[in-house]
Amino acid sequence: MTDPAQTLTPVPKEPVDENLWLEDVHGTEQLDWVREQNARTEDLLETGDYPELEAEILEVMDSQDRIPMVTKRGEWYYNFWRDAQNPKGLWRRTRWESYVTESPQWQILLDVDALAANEGTEWVWGGASFLRPADSQSWRRCIVRLSPDGGDASALREYDVEDRAFVAPADGGFSLPAAKGGADWLDADTLIVSSTLGDGAVTTSSYPRVVRKLARGSALEAAEVIFEVPADHLMASGGFDDTPGFERLLASDRISFFDVQHSVWRDGGWQRIPVPTDVDVDLHREWLLFRPQRDWDLDGAVHRAGSLLAADFEAFMGGSRELTLLFSPDAHTSLQSWSWTRNHLLVNLLRDVSSEIRVLTPPPAGSSDWATKELDACPPLHLVESYAVDDEDPEAGDDYWLVATGFLTPTTLLRGTIGGSNGPVKRAPSFFDESRFAVEQHFATSEDGTQVPYFQVGPKDLELDGSNPTQLSGYGGFEISRTPAYSGVIGRAWLERGGVYVVANIRGGGEYGPAWHQAALKENRHRAYEDFAAVARDLIRRDVTSPEHLGCTGGSNGGLLVGNMLVSYPQLFGAVSCGVPLLDMRRYTKLSAGTSWIAEYGDPDVPDQWEFIKTFSPYHLLHDGVDYPDTFIWTATSDDRVGPVQARKMAARMLAMGIPNVWYHEALEGGHAGASDNRQAAALQARSQAFLWRALTT
Asked: Which residues, 6 or more positions from 611, have their beta carbon under 8 angstroms from its beta carbon?
C-alpha cells in the first residue's frame, strides 16, 4: 500500500524574511524602530502649512453643525458624539421634539473621556445593545462595548440608562474583559455570548469558536456551551430574536468569509435553515429573505446571484420551496441592502453606482403578489440610503430615514412615512465652496474589455493639460461598494487647493453585485488591479493628469490594492499613500485575523494557490533598479484585524533597498481605523493629504 504521506505535495519552505523581528508588535526594540520612523516622517510632513491643514481637517471633524445621527429606542433617540471638548465622545439621548430643533437638549448617559480618565484606560466606544423591556417604551438596560485601544477586542459591561451608571458586578451586573466577539440578551438575567475568552474558544482566524449561555452572577468559563464550530472555521456567533410573537434563538457557523450556515433552536435542538452556505438569509417576523451570492438552483429553478427572494419562514422550514422573487439584478443594477418597516420592505439599489430605492409590500392573505413602487427619484451621481426608524413603534412603524449625499452635496437627513411624504430633519454644513466644482462619471476599459466606472470631482473649468494633481482612491474587495459621499476633508485638503479627486469602482467591490466581486477573487485578483490601472491610464489619456501628478490612496484591502500599484504599475503614479495594508501575502494568514480572508485571496500554504498569490504580494515583488513612486505607508500598533506588521516590513525592506522617498508612520493606538478620536483621525488624514500634495506638486 502506498504511504499517503508520500503523495502529498510538500509545502515550499518559507523564503528568507529579514524582517521577521518586526512581527513582535509590542516589542521594545520594534517600537523604538517605529518611533524613529514616526519622527522622520513627522519632520518631513509636519512643516510649512501643515498645522493649518490639520487644523482645517479637525474643524470639519469637530464641527458642532454635523448631523447627530440617531437610533430610536422607545421614546428616546440615542446618539454618540465626538468633538473638541469630548475627543473620546459622549453617549447621549434626546426626545423627538428636541431633536428636530437647531439645538437639541441632550441627556448625557456616558462620558467616555471621564471614564477613561477615571479608570486609566484609553477606552474607545463600540456601541450598546438593549434588553427588550416588558413595556416597549421603557428601554433601560443595555450591554455597552468598550475597546481599550480601538481594536476589535472589546470589554462588555451592563449599563442602566435611567441610573446613568454601570451595573456593578457586586450587584450582579454583567462585566466581561476585552475579547473579540459579542453578546445578546436572551432575557433579563441571561446573555448569549460569543467570546475568545477561555480555553479552546478561539478559531484559527482569531474569532470566537463557541457560543455560551451566561446566567447573571455566573463566570463565563462555567457557562453552558450551546453552540460551537470547528477551530478551522472562521467564527461562531449567536443571538436572540426578541420580536414579540416571533422569539427565537439563532446561531451561525461562519465557515469562511462568504460561507455561513444559520441554525434556529427548535424542539430542543439546532435546526439548520436548509439553504446553501453561500445564500445570505434574513429573518423578520414571519418572513425569510434570501440573497444568493452565486446562482442558486432550487429544485430546478435557478435564482440569480444578487437577487432577493422571500418565503414564509414556517412553511420553508416545514419543507415548502415556494419562493417569491422580489428583485433580480441586471447588467446595470445591483442590490445593496434592505430594511423592514412595520408593513413594508425598503430595498436600496445601485444603478451604475447611483441610488435607486424601491418599496415592496407583502401581499394580503390568499395572494402571492408583492406590490412594488419607487420611493423617490434619487438624483444621479448621488447616494441615498433608506432604513426604518422603528418598525415596532405603534404610531410610526412605517416611518423611514433617508440619508442623501453626493461628492458636492452635504449630507441631508430626511424622515418620511411610506404612503405619505418625507422632509428634511437635519442638514450637514458646507465645508468648502462646492459651486466651483463638478462631478462626472466616466468608464475606463480594462484589459479584458470590461467597462469600469469611476467618479471624477474637479474644477468646473478644469484644464485638460495633464498637469492637475490627482488623487485616485479605490478598494476593490469583499463586495464593498465605493459610492458618492460628501467629504469636507477632501474638499478642504484637496479640491480647494486645486486637486482632482477620483473614486474607482473596480471589480472585487459590490457596485454591480456578487458577480462584480467574484470576478476578482483568488486567481483572478489581477482583474481588480488591471481595472484600477485602467482608470489611471484613462485619466492620463484624457489629459486630466499625468503620471508625475497622479497619486493613489487606499486602506486595508485598498492598501493591498495601492501596494500592487506601487510594485506592478510604478510608471503610472507619482505617489502612493498606503494605509493599514495587507502587503506580505506569504504570511498574511499567520498575522492577526488573516486566516479569515482565505476565501478572498487564497491560502499561501497551499502550493498551487501560492503560485497565484505571489503575483499580488507586494512585499515579494520589490526589485532593485525600479524607479518607484514616492511612498507613504501608515498603520496603527493596536490594529488587531490586519495588524501593523505587514506595513512595518514593507517599509523596512524598501528602506533597506535604498529606495528613495519612502516614509512610514504608525499610530500607537486607534485600531484598524488608525485613529481612536477626531484629533488622531485629523492627523492621519492631514499626513496622507500633505504627503500626496507634496509629492505630486513639487
From this structure: none
Query: 3-class DSSP state for residue 497?
Result: coil
Catalytic residues, which ones? Answer: 556, 672
Q: How far is CA 382 from CA 334, 483, 485, 486, 580, in A?
A: 15, 8, 7, 9, 28
CA geometry: angle at 467 spanning 463 and 473, to 5°? Answer: 95
CB contact at 8 A, 200 and 242: no
Q: What pLDDT score was predicted for residue 670?
A: 57
Q: Do the bridges between strand 333-340 and strand 324-327 make them parallel or antiparallel, or are there none, so unpaired?
A: unpaired
| Interhelix angle 28-45/678-697, nearest 10 degrees | 60
Q: Helices marked H in 70-163 — which ranges?
A: 96-99, 112-119
Complete DSSP assignment for 358-398 = EEEEPPPTT----EEEE---PPTT-EEEEEES-TT-TTTTT
| Residue 223 bridge partners (DSSP) | none
State pTM to two decimals: 0.94
* Helix H or strand E segment including 159: strand 154-160
Q: At what angle do helices 28-45 and 645-656 cross, to 10 degrees?
A: 70
For the cut 90, the answer to whether the pLDDT of residue 698 exceeds it is: no
DSSP class of 202: B
Residue with cell 529606495: 659
Task: Give long-range contacts, CB 8 A cutoff, 24+ apart: 312-315.
Answer: 312/286, 312/287, 312/288, 313/283, 313/286, 313/287, 313/288, 314/286
pLDDT in tens, 202-219: 999 999 999 999 999 999
pLDDT at 368 over 80: no
Q: Are 543 and 514 in contact (CB under 8 A)?
A: no
Whole-angstrom distance, CA of residue 670 vs CA of residue 254: 27
